Amino acid sequence: MARAPLLQLSGISLTFGGDPLFSELDLVVHAGDRTALVGRNGSGKSTLMKVMAELVEPDTGSRVLPAGVSVGYLQQEPDMSAFATIGDFAVSGLEPGQEWRVEAAAEGLKLAPETAVSAASGGERRRAALAKLLAEAPELMLLDEPTNHLDIEAIGWLERHLLETSAGFVLISHDRAFLNALTKTTIWIDRSIVRRREEGFVGFEAWRDKIWSDEDAERHKLNRRIKAEARWAVEGISARRKRNQGRVRALQALRAERAAQVKRQGTAGLALDAGTKSGRKTIEAKGITKSYGDKLILKPFDMRVLRGDRIAVVGPNGVGKTTLIGMLTGQVAPDAGSVVLGSNVELAIFDQNRAALNPDLTLWDTLAGDRELGVSGKADQVMVRGVPKHVVGYLKEFLFTDAQARAPVRSLSGGEKARLLLAKIMAKPSNLLVLDEPTNDLDIETLDLLQEVLSDYHGTVLLVSHDRDFIDRIATTTVAMEGGGRAIIFAGGWSDYQMQRGEKGALEPPDNTKKMNVNKGALPARKKVNSALTFTEKHRLERLPEEIGRLEREIEKLAGLLSDADLFSKDPAKFQKATKALTERQAMLTASEEEWLRLEEKAES
Length: 605
Prior knowledge:
The chain contains 19 helices and 23 strands. The protein is an alpha/beta fold. It folds into 4 domains: 5-206, Rossmann fold; 214-260; 281-501, P-loop containing nucleotide triphosphate hydrolases (Rossmann fold, 3-Layer(aba) Sandwich); 516-604, Valyl-tRNA synthetase, C-terminal domain (Helix Hairpins). The strands form 6 sheets. The protein has a 6-stranded mixed beta sheet, covered by helices on one side. The protein has a 6-stranded mixed beta sheet with strand order 14-18-19-12-20-21, sandwiched between helices. Strands 2-1-4 form a 3-stranded antiparallel beta sheet, with no helix packed on it. α5 (152-164) links the parallel β6 and β7. It is globular, with a radius of gyration of 28 Å.
């Protein structure tokens, strides 16, 4: 059965003073579509989405929206000047009695609606715009990087919400896990060509590479034909008085076809030099703690980081991930305990706020004016891992143009600022690399290259990120900061951390849970809560029985494994791992039971 179209673009052409972004573009979005909109930075993804939202007028073509269909667009910089709080903005335009929709979204997105507009950060404004859009529940949602400024928990909530919605949506994101989980169709913009594939992002890269491979093969054939025809045009003159004008025109047409082809944009020239090898023990932290006023950031914490380790620090926004990294690298003093850096440590930092970039400087001066990078006496050269290079040539390796070299940093997009900062820190040798939210604003191709570079890097990496896929690809150890000063070390990346915690993936449906006994009281499998509990507490109380049942089953399984008297002698590593897992799950079960009793008592009172 054919699905009804929600939005139709016909013959869309758009040019911004240079090469066309789109030419004679036709595109239909159907009811229920869950579409990934992908392409390199600067390919026109956001512009196309604004055309869909009727915020950008194309040069030619039409946009058709059936009567009664509502379209919502996630604003990058919403105008809140008419509102006192971000909550007032989020509920504006809703029907009376629908304010609860904003409250529910605010809980999931970790948004404080009472925050004054004048005090709200850019991230809080973005989350308020997202909460407003979700509360309005349009039939078609246009979501441009909705996971920016969200932590992993909020991303998981948004993922579940979008899986459950009946609305169609078009999604721009650099988060592979998010795209893989949600999308069923893919729209790819590549050099002004828009292609549609009736499958989600999961198989996008193989599809893209096949198209590029076929394109390269056709270009090779074309070059061979041009070479053969050109040889005939030159050598054939000696055998004939007249040229075959038809073949000459055909040769000219072949050359014109080749000239009209648009070359693919290259990848940024990312490279790292670990420089002088650090000592085998890079960081030794013993009993470090940290508080800011009444807020406890870190209880006594011990950690040893060895050369070559890739440590990911994960947790909710505001829990203290950047503070922990600062303590481990000696940038922030702990309240108690000690941190000792190993010998010959050379530190490079990629910070999430891009503080190392002066917005008033040009790209040229950002590199050539840096005392550590600039070549003495030569303002047009930069020292790149011990080798002098012309500053424009080095900028081109990171996909900047000649014109951009003299432009101020403030004129760059978020992705371009990220590439410039990478160029700055990768120019000098380092053996301890700190990456604080490196994936924000980078396109997927650059993320792939960054992953490859880190894989070959002989130094040590400390990573803060909310990108689950990137953590899985990079991290060998994960430090989970779970609030209340708790920081727990797990082997592996994000998926390993989830598995070791015994949690199911965010998208996996819960098992049916039988009744269990807690302090001699019968605990229902699942209880619908109607009380004065907050939205989050209600949700938590409904979920706890499933969590308790799962922990009991895992404890039973681990106890059965450890009942084997020969396990320690046969496989001591497996015995130790199972013992540790059993102890952790028993502690988690106790905590979950106590939490259920507390919430149950609060609900009944």
